[in-house]
Specification:
The complex is a heterodimer. In chain A, 37% of the residues lie in helices and 14% in strands. By secondary structure, chain A is α/β, with parallel strands linked by helices. Chain B is elongated. Classes of the chains: A alpha/beta, B alpha+beta.
Chain lengths: 304, 154
């Protein structure tokens, strides 16, 4: 089902396939924690093509590959490669494909992972293409929710913050809707979820600009950073900066079992005191990037 | 219909593009690059009453269309028919048909799409709706409506 397959968009994975990924990821947990050794990917090489910086994603892929006994080649600074000499992405991919068994690509242009998958004979995993897709982030988000609640169908999930530019929440909203969750969208007017994303959701989500409207109902509060670097006009950023702040006081109104997630890095959206409450799951979520990526690597390389 | 056809003279050789959705005739001319002195007669009737409501009709003397041009017309006027005229007679008549995939005739409107960079690929779109026409880029997944399509036809 997975051997040799490209992972480009979350939309290409069925519920059954996601369940398999989560099941394998659960089996990977002790290896990801370093409690057990594995040589499942011994002799396999992962090529990481990071055309823009993303330390967290790159290192979690590298950690995943090393934990399974494989090795990693690649770059995270394209200015030191032939790309700076004008080489096309298609050519870079063809060359790296011949040096490795699986490729992970991060690129600033949308659709680049799809293009890479066309030119590579080995599997390609999309680690984020511009404002497009970031399927492995969505999978680790879903895995974290799944770990907590066992089932995603029927959960109330509030997506909070920058819903306009946040690539993470676009894919996640689609996947949550597909899996039957109820979605609440909380953002300032300026940063509302684009209509073409809302059109793809099964049910029309509740939209509001106040966390207070959803805090009592939400099972998951998925908070995102308002990304200063995405605003063409700094004065626009100033209008919405600091719109939302999750505090332990606010969480007193939340459900007993509600969890707070964040794709990280955070700036001031979540007060540090929240880290010590029973609701915080964002560091667990970040760690989950490793077992989920281990599962994907093992599945597309056909060893599980 | 008889009454309407009298408004524009018959052509000897060329094409008649009929059943163009109301108001789209000028856009049909635009995508066929007919925008000035082309050396032959172009007749255009807009807002003609028809059984379907209203339509536009374009007649072009001494001009024929290739497959690529017919596909372009299908994108913005999916109800159109193309009649080929020879010696005042219709010798060929066919309805344009929008395929399920559009390859190489429209560029993606997203400037940050990888197909708009220097890469060895042609643009490809899935037709996700035929009425109204909506295309989705196979690479960046951006959707384009008719107005965007007209602006980006190659």
């Amino acid at each position: 089902m997975f051997k040799g397959r490209d992972i480009v968009s979350i939309k290409e994975l069925s519920k059954e396939e996601m369940d398999i990924i989560f099941e394998v990821a659960r089996e990977m947990l002790p290896i990801a924690r370093g409690e057990r050794k594995s040589d499942l990917l011994d002799g396999k090489i992962l090529a990481t093509l990071f055309f823009e910086p993303s330390t967290r994603t790159r290192l979690s892929f590298e950690s995943a590959m090393h934990r399974l006994g494989g090795s990693v080649i690649g770059f995270s600074n394209p200015s030191a490669t032939s790309i700076s000499k004008g080489e096309t992405l298609a050519d870079t991919v063809r060359v790296m494909d011949s040096y490795s068994d699986v490729i992970v690509i991060r690129h600033p242009y949308e659709g680049s992972a799809r293009l890479a998958a066309e030119f590579a004979s080995n599997p390609v995993i999309n680690a984020g293409d511009g404002a497009g897709q970031h399927p492995t982030q969505t999978l680790l988000d879903l895995f974290t929710i799944h770990q907590e609640f066992g089932e995603i169908e029927g959960l109330n999930v509030a997506l909070i913050g920058d819903l306009k530019y946040g690539r993470t929440v676009h894919s996640l909203a689609y996947a949550l809707s597909y899996l039957g969750a109820n979605i609440y969208l909380v953002s300032p007017e300026l940063l509302r979820m684009p209509s073409h994303i809302i059109r793809e959701l099964k049910e029309k989500p509740v939209e509001t600009d106040k966390i207070e409207d959803v805090i009592e109902d939400a099972d998951v509060l998925y908070v995102t950073r308002i990304q200063k670097e995405r605003f063409p006009d700094p004065t626009e950023y100033k209008k919405v900066a600091g719109s939302y702040r999750i505090t332990s006081e606010l969480l007193n109104k939340a459900k007993e079992k509600a969890i707070v997630m964040h794709p990280l890095p955070r700036v001031d959206e979540i007060e540090p005191e929240v880290d010590y409450t029973k609701h915080a799951r964002y560091f667990q979520q970040a760690f989950n990037g490793v077992p989920v990526r281990m599962a994907l690597l093992a599945l597309v390389l056909g060893v599980v | 219909m008889e009454e309407q056809t009298l408004k524009v003279q018959k052509i000897r050789n060329g094409i008649v593009i009929d059943h163009i959705p109301c108001g789209m005739a000028l856009k049909v001319l635009k995508i066929l690059n007919i925008n000035g002195d082309i050396g032959s007669t172009v007749s255009l009737v807009m807002h003609v009453k028809s059984r379907m409501g209203c339509k536009d009709v374009v007649k072009i003397e001494d001009r024929f269309l290739d497959e690529r041009e017919i596909d372009k017309i299908a994108l913005i006027a999916p109800t159109a028919t193309v009649n080929v005229i020879e010696n005042y007679k219709v010798v060929n008549k066919h309805k344009v048909e929008l395929p399920d995939e559009i390859v190489g005739i429209v560029k993606c409107m997203n400037p940050r799409c990888i197909t708009n960079q220097r890469e060895p690929v042609v643009s490809e779109f899935k037709v996700i709706s035929k009425n109204p026409v909506i295309l989705k880029c196979k690479y960046c997944e951006r959707e384009m409506g008719v107005e965007d399509i007209i602006e980006n036809i190659l």
